[in-house]
Specification:
CATH topology of the largest domain: Aminopeptidase
CATH architecture of the largest domain: 3-Layer(aba) Sandwich
Number of domains: 2
Number of strands: 13
Helix content: 25-40%
Distance between the termini: 39 Å
Length: about 350
Amino acid sequence: MANLRVVGFSNPYEFLEAVKGNDDSFMNFPLGALMDSMDEQQIRVRNITEDSRTLVGVYDGDALVLALVKVVGDFAWVLGCPGDSEPVGPNAKTAISLLVSFLPSIIDPKLFDNLFGPESLVDAFIDAWVSGMTARGLRIEALPTFFRSKASFATLATLPLPSLVLSKYRIELASPDNVEILAHLYTGFSGSGPNAASIGEARVKMDMSIQLREIWVCREQGEIAGYIATGRTTFRTVAIRNLYVSPRHRRKGVAEAMTVAVMRYFLGAQPLGFGGAPDGPPTKGIKEEICLNVAEEHVQRLYKRCGFLLGEGSRDPTTGKKGWFASAFRGVRFLDELE
């Protein structure tokens, strides 16, 4: 990697054009975060402006090595690298050093707080950032890792056959009159993580997700038993953002049914095998990969049954691409400036 260079983008469309050739599950977090922020409805609801995004790429010649994306209001800065090309050893150190040196030239360093991405790169960036900012006369400390997880994907080729459990439930897009119950379910979901939402924040989030047609509900005897939220939609991929089942409806196959239903719908599987789907294909088109991020071992087992490539050594049966990568969410804290 003798020709490494850093490029900052002020225009999101130019950044998208530069990196869209690397649109796959490994880049779903940075690309998906960016493309979400370019949706007209999100721009309006989130008050996104031209200054709301920070977009940086590290290139080896013309080949993308790393991408760093931040959209104001998102939970973290996102670091990504294409496919199986994660830089390691001296190459990773050089690429990270270039990013750390470049970033303070386009933002106030104190705006950098949390980072999500491949675990080894996140750790390397946090260490380099703390060292770099200390050298600039700022007092800063690295925070413990908030959580570690696996980022994985599934394709049409990895989908299981439709099951009787799937046909047992009605799974449909949520409607505006579902906001209140979904908000309460979302507080249950977020309460177990580092970013617990208030009921007011949950209402806003659920209302926007419903308007964007990104949240599905599963009904059992007419009652909403749980929901599954999608997003980070790119040209080739879409992500399952989160899933939550009401405690009194658990251990009935609801989570598995919702997961497989959404997977089959977005991947264009036929027959769908469940009732409640909209007529016609997804608004933003059928996707080649559906992505997710998962931490708990028992939840990993659920998603593995649904077709996600979460096994040790799992690879895409069509392309041979590895099925998951270790991800991490870490942060830093700036203290008082040195005297």
